[in-house]
């Protein structure tokens, strides 16, 4: 489960990974959940294909330029039709893409920008992590040490809340 307000995380959705996007409705916080099936239903695309959509449309909040003149609807339709930016440009080069007018011109003239934008919009899953999940396992904490720290910081409310006992030396 990934809880995030950033829809870029949709590219991480799988059968085993669900993305929760919080939003406020009627003054209450609610969460929309998206797994692989929900992404396919909503966008008509596999989660990983949303990276290609981002590559074409860009995202000004993330400083991803995209292809000028290509918005979300057009980018989504193009990726639904061609499957990926790579396939789109392969068809463009073979003059089999059936694009017209300004859209064709913008796509043809901004190939490098599209591929750069796809790279920038991809969440890197190959980050070297030196720890294992076992390293983050919650263990019993050192209550006397925590009590001393809380006393030093005058966190009296937390001493009560965590049922730490004052010990006189």
Kindly describe this structure:
This protein is mainly α and 169 residues long. The chain folds into three domains: 1-47, no CATH class; 48-127, DNA polymerase, domain 1 (Orthogonal Bundle), CATH 1.10.150; 130-169, no CATH class. 43% of the residues lie in helices and 9% in strands. The protein has helices spanning 36-43, 49-57, 72-82, 85-93, 101-109, 111-120, 143-152, 156-161, and strands at 2-3, 19-25, 28-34. It has a three-stranded mixed beta sheet with strand order 1-2-3. Helix 2 crosses helix 6. The longest helix is centred in the middle third of the chain and has 11 residues, at 72-82.
Set down the secondary structure blueprint:
Blueprint: E1 2-3, E2 19-25, E3 28-34, H1 36-43, H2 49-57, H3 72-82, H4 85-93, H5 101-109, H6 111-120, H7 143-152, H8 156-161
Parallel strand pairs: 1-2
Antiparallel strand pairs: 2-3
């Amino acid at each position: 489960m990934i809880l995030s307000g950033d829809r870029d995380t949709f590219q991480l959705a799988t059968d085993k990974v669900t993305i929760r996007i919080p939003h406020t409705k009627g003054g209450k916080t609610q969460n929309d959940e998206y797994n692989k099936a929900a992404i396919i239903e909503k966008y008509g695309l596999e989660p990983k294909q949303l990276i290609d959509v981002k590559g074409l449309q860009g995202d000004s909040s993330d400083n991803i330029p995209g292809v000028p003149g290509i918005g979300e609807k057009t980018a989504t339709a193009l990726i639904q039709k061609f499957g990926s930016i790579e396939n789109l440009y392969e068809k463009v080069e073979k003059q089999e893409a059936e694009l017209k007018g300004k859209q064709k011109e913008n796509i043809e003239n901004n190939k490098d920008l599209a591929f750069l934008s796809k790279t920038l919009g991809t969440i890197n899953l190959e980050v070297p992590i030196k720890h294992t999940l076992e390293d983050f396992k919650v263990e019993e904490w050192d209550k006397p040490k925590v009590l001393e720290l809380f006393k030093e910081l005058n966190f009296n409310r937390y001493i009560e809340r965590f049922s730490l006992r004052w010990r006189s030396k």
